[in-house]
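queue> pop job 88
queue> type: inverse folding (structure -> sequence)
queue> payload:
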């Protein structure tokens, strides 16, 4: 499992919203039996985590943004959906899609 904690930006349409991110990624490993041998093979990677913002307008945009991009400073970008959170609550749970941005 990999993790990332630090600054990031959520890209919603034309706007960038700065957030703090606490992210994780996990890659499954599959046991494969072939020709009498058993080996491990890399499987699907999933990622997600929690975004933090005190900006209520940013929280509203993220919670209602549909499919968005998360830019992790110094690493990359990844696609995600907001799973749940509350405006004014400060934290938003996300579920990533595709490769993690860190």
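queue> result:
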């Amino acid at each position: 499992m990999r993790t990332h904690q630090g600054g990031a930006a959520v890209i919603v349409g034309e706007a960038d919203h700065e957030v703090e991110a606490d992210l994780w990624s996990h890659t499954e490993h599959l046991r494969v039996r072939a020709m009498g041998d058993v080996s491990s093979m890399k499987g699907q990677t999933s990622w997600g985590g929690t975004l933090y913002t005190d900006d209520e307008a940013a929280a509203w945009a993220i919670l209602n943004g549909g499919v968005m991009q998360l830019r992790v400073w110094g690493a990359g970008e990844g696609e995600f959906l907001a799973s749940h959170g509350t405006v004014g609550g400060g934290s938003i749970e996300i579920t990533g899609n595709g490769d993690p941005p860190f």
